[in-house]
Amino acid sequence: MALIVQKYGGTSVGSIERITAVAEKLIATRAQGHNLVVVVSAMSGETNRLVALAKSLADPPKAREFDVLLATGEQVSMSLLCMALEARGCPARSYTGAQVHILTDSAHTKARILEIDDQHIHADLAQGRVVVVAGFQGIDAKRNITTLGRGGSDTTGVALAVALKADECQIYTDVDGVYTTDPRIVPEARRLDKLCFEEMLEMASLGSKVLQIRAVEFASKYNVPLRVLSSIEDGPGTLIAKEDETMEKALISGIAFNRDEAKLTLLGVPDKPGIAYQILGHIAELNIEVDMIIQNIGADGSTDFTFTVHRNDYKKALEVLNKLATELGVREIQGDEHIAKISLVGVGMRSHAGIASTMFKALAHYGINILMISTSEIKISVVVHEDFLELGVRALHTAFNLKEK
Amino acid sequence: MALIVQKYGGTSVGSIERITAVAEKLIATRAQGHNLVVVVSAMSGETNRLVALAKSLADPPKAREFDVLLATGEQVSMSLLCMALEARGCPARSYTGAQVHILTDSAHTKARILEIDDQHIHADLAQGRVVVVAGFQGIDAKRNITTLGRGGSDTTGVALAVALKADECQIYTDVDGVYTTDPRIVPEARRLDKLCFEEMLEMASLGSKVLQIRAVEFASKYNVPLRVLSSIEDGPGTLIAKEDETMEKALISGIAFNRDEAKLTLLGVPDKPGIAYQILGHIAELNIEVDMIIQNIGADGSTDFTFTVHRNDYKKALEVLNKLATELGVREIQGDEHIAKISLVGVGMRSHAGIASTMFKALAHYGINILMISTSEIKISVVVHEDFLELGVRALHTAFNLKEK
Hints:
2 copies of one chain form a homodimer. By secondary structure, chain A is an alpha/beta fold. Chain A has 2 domains: 3-174, 3-Layer(aba) Sandwich (Carbamate kinase); 244-405, VC0802-like (2-Layer Sandwich), CATH 3.30.2130. Chain A is 34% helix and 26% strand. Chain A has 11 helices and 20 strands. Chain A has helices at residues 16-31, 46-55, 63-87, 119-126, 152-164, 197-205, 213-222, 275-285, 314-328, 355-365, 389-399; strands at 3-8, 35-40, 92-95, 103-104, 113-115, 130-134, 137-139, 145-147, 168-173, 194-196, 226-230, 238-241, 254-258, 261-270, 290-297, 302-310, 332-336, 339-345, 372-376, 379-385. In chain A, strands 3-6-2-1-9-11-12-10 form an 8-stranded mixed sheet, with helices on both faces. In chain A, a hairpin with a 4-residue loop joins strand 15 and strand 16. At the A-B interface, helix 1, helix 2, helix 3 and strand 3 of A face helix 1, helix 2, helix 3 and strand 3 of B.
């Protein structure tokens, strides 16, 4: 008998039929003797409906009130799920973030969880109830309603699993696990049985939308096994856990990619201390997040400095750099918003050499020009022209034979 | 400078346009120097939408979860109203029933308010904020979400006015006040400037749908002046307050009516102690509410016993009486579900004779047969065939000259 926290996303509770299906799945799992705590998102479409109402009154709407509004979405789905369970004779009880005291900071619309009261939940479980908790929401110390930001229900699930010392946190979604890469690009992409937290973090931050980064970080920090599963089809899904001996000994676990970035290059930057800070300080002041940063020392005592930002921030960043050019003594500023980033991820890299050269060889074979390279312990990322994204991903998937286990 | 509690019903906050109009009205009232606490219902249509969702999953749905679901309706409208206020530079803050600790008993779907925490609200008012509170909802001692039943937002408004010692509780609705009778039946019906609580209670319990009986009782008990106003047009509305010297010295304030009842008559009931209890005890066991009860002693030592019930309960009541007939020694049982009740209401009756005879004369003039008569200190009710309802109401409105002030 295990204590399992299950999280169902908006699509999984998106209609009366889907809610009924989830209720029946829960009852079957409970019949196997497991204790269940369920976290639900708002029914798909509901959050968008509420956002549209708010925006038609005020844009941006007052953050405190926006959170009060959005929090109703999960409250609706949690109560409906409990009704479906109770109607089938399964005792159930729903709780808002406030009711189980999911204490957060006061950063409305992007609050962070500080503490959860597990007393109510343990008491209900002891009485044989399924406990259903609203995802995405909490309260601050003054009992104001807060929300955790888009996808925050994953974080609620993991935080509950941590607080309750659950055996596993299962994230039900509309895909049946984490794949070696996006099957829409590589049809023979393979579902991974197991990944370690570090790999999932790289995959998530590189564009795999299956899990929220914050939720994976949280699970990693407290070592709670996470499992990604389909709410539609039965299957083992993908387990994300601490790296261990039983872990698949693959060189490469997956290929992530991202076409949301743009790159900016400053050519002929005077090579003196503090110059990187001068450049990026001005970017940070505009609240623009920088992803990759590369600096090469040139022969003439000057340096070339390249970084990437989100494509939405490209124009703003280019503008500030053009203004700074003279002040910084930069020779030229170049920009490119038609780039894509492709990354190989795998803990196997730690102990294996030659991965990078295999990667570069595969890309060269198809005539794909590499614009930037960046590496970390378990990741190699390259930036290429966006036109070559799909071709590059397919070339790498084949080169590393990822369709075979 | 006054402290005013205003309650807006579902139609008044039924769309973005209406919410905007309410926000502007509030800002204008606040500019006159008043402190405002606002109670809102769910947007019109929203409660029905939620009920339909619930009923498609379980019928009846689990009461605890049904309350959790319905409570989201007011949470949506309160946050939207605050956004509209804040967007216009008016500081505002919304609170759910749980947040201002509207403590109720645990009777889900029909809970009663026990206590309200006024600390938060007073603190916000002191800081110049408009406070917006969700109507219709509260929490019980175990922090379960409860609701007060349909129309419960009126009760929330009055309860808040009592707790905050407000100067007036204003109920905004889609009519501009309480009328001498329903203007759909009598076009020259007149809006009343003032009514006393007792009159309003009689009017409400006799079918006038403007205010919830419970809210009027609450206001009367704690002597909080109530005012019914239109949220669409400006106007003085109708003030409902304690009877006093300044009260309009009318004989009759209004005419209420009701076509939801049916009558049952037991002829030739043995005239012995306990017989009324024997009859009505069986009716009460079926949870059927009885309205009027009339008993006449006959010449032959037997008695005739007539009472009215809601039309929905008529068949059930007739069935049980037919079963009881022999046991009770009753000669005959008659029923009529085509009746209507017309009532004259007015505190003036206390000190004036001749009201009843004027009433009966007016009805006789139009050949309207009176089937039952029942009186109280400030009310005379007659039961007639339902076909004569409109004619009877018009005849009485004219006979008592109610169109003139």
